[in-house]
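Reader question, answered in our methods column.
A reader sent in the components of a multi-part assembly and asked whether the whole thing could be modeled at once rather than chain by chain. We filled in our standard form and ran it. Here is what they sent:
COMPLEX SIZE: two components
ENTRIES:
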Amino acid sequence: MISSQIDKAEFWTMEISPKSGWLDLNLREIWRYRDLLRFFMHRDFVANYKQAVLGPFWFILNPLLNTIVYTIIFGLIIRVPTDGLPPILFFMSGIIIWNYFSACVLNTSNTFLAHAHIFGKIYFPRLIIPISTVIINLLTFAIQFGVYICFIIYFAFQGVPIHPNIFILLLPLLLIQIAAFGLGTGLIVSSLTTKYRDLAYAMGFGIQLWMYATPIFFPLSLIPEKWQWIFAVNPMTSIVETFRYILLGNGYFQPWILSLGAVTTLITLIIGLVLFTHIEKTVIDTI
Amino acid sequence: MNEVVIRVENVIKTYQLGVINHGTLRNDLQSWWAHLRGREDPNRLIDIYSEEKNRLKGDLFYALDNISFEVKKGEKVGIIGKNGAGKSTLLKILSRITRPTEGRVRINGRIASLLEVGTGFHPELTGRENVYLNGSILGMTRAEITEKFDEIVDFAEVREFIDTPVKRYSSGMYVRLAFAVAAHLEPEILIVDEVLAVGDTAFQKKCIGKMGDISSEGKTVLFVSHSMAAVKQLCPRSLLIRDGKIIADGPSENIIDEYLLQSGSVDGITEATFDEDREKEAQLRKIRVLSQEGKVKYRFSCDEPVILELEMHFNKKIPGLYGYMTISRSDGTLVMQSDSFDSSPNPLDDVEIGTHYFTITIPARSLAPNKYSVYLNFTSNRARSWNVDSPRTVCSFELEDHTSRRGNARQGFFSTMLEWKKI
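And here is the structure of the entire assembly that came back:
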């Protein structure tokens, strides 16, 4: 062919071929599409907040109602010890952390199915969607966190011994960890649901079960020390305990639990990214 | 201008039959269990059109079978072929929606593809917000959209409603705005699917004009269409695809003649059924071309009406659903456009769940003697995905004139008998 003679002189901006490495994460491209990320976040924000008259109000009401229900069940009826904290403060801290995590997982886990139509019509880095989901959910968390702070202040004035400490500066890191872990888990589930749709139904139940296996309605100190490592593999354990410790000065703050959680988080995120970037290339053929 | 900007090399795309439709763990276990006992896979797809059998090798269906071609900078290339020939698969690979199974495509330059207008439009967002969202989905940056914003709004003629949520737009306004964003894309290489075939004619002209402007600026364009007239108008060169292979490449006029000669596209098809697609909120399941007596027929006299009978299944009540139809002459010229708003009330609007039948009657003595093909599309701007069902070109009929003096030699668009009178 004539063209092959000038091949060397040619410059290609893009090559579309069947395969790429096991982790094909094009961060530069995601950065180039950052405006799209913004507009997707804006879209989700409008869809979540503008539609209902009460909009943001629900995000406040939901953890409050949950806290009341769980305080009655676990605090008053079962009488779970709460590390000497007022049950409301204890349960609510776990609930708002868990809300953020489960929202990240559940909302990113249907990325492919919910966006099949757009994905079938146009290309953009698919990761934009789960990333925008994780960021937009942070807003909901911020609202709930604000309410929680009000409760802390109220109880502090009531004379309850609450000792926030210097580690509160770790809060952003903690949130990044939840986001990373929620994103990783969501990416894994979203990749698997393209093959097995029934997994989407199992997910709602799975998350619920997972919540009860996380020290939200009980303190980790209730678990015998030799079994604690089982809980520590779940990064949400260290996150919830650390969250309580830095805000209330009461919780199970152990470096080894924290590091084990961090390792699991990292592994989950990497597996999620590998699966997602692998599936996204041909997902539209099977969805 | 001899620089090659798209090079497609030996691209193959196969689909594994059977895998496409599994989708649940239960089915996979079932197949696995059957395989274990040496039985036939109960989930295997067995309905393959006989004409597609030569594209099957074992369990693999060859959607694209070793495609290679080059496009030079500034070229406008039409891609034509029957439904299912592989055009859409090729477009999807070029637009990076999916990857080839083998081979590679190399591209030099900023590329944008337009397989649909208004992708990502959200009903709750205002016109302004949707312009930004849609523009950035299409690959524009915020700054680029801002720069073009006024032009887009003026082009769409929606200035006074730009801060109103698009759910309150009329379908005309909605389509115009969606088109306007797409028309103001400024890539170096543009890939366009049949999207231009929607919208009202006046606006379509404006859009094709705009596309013409873009292409005269030295942009490279790949254009897929069923409308031979549009391909002829926009593209000097065409590729003809059949059964996943490129069977002809050359000047559009020759290629189009070849295509019409050998495929005849839907020529002679008077009855078509469509496989159930549960994803669709409403779907055309069957169409028949009927005579007044209710018989399936292809060749009609100009003196009798042609009746199209549509069997449609509704999985949902869809407010605002309407049908859109065009009738094209065998050379691809659009002869007439119609939609279900021609009847009042629109019979497709808000139909109950279930199967319903509709007819479209083309009155006697309206169209001139010729061969015609019918294109159908069902749309609602209030449905989940704006295009509810796009069966596209579905059937055909032929009209013969036996009664007028000139008979079949009567040229033009109409066969209407006019009154000549001495007064």
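What stands out: The CA atoms of residues 191 and 275 of chain A lie 6 Å apart. The first strand of chain A starts at residue 14 and ends at 16.
Send us your own complexes using the same form.
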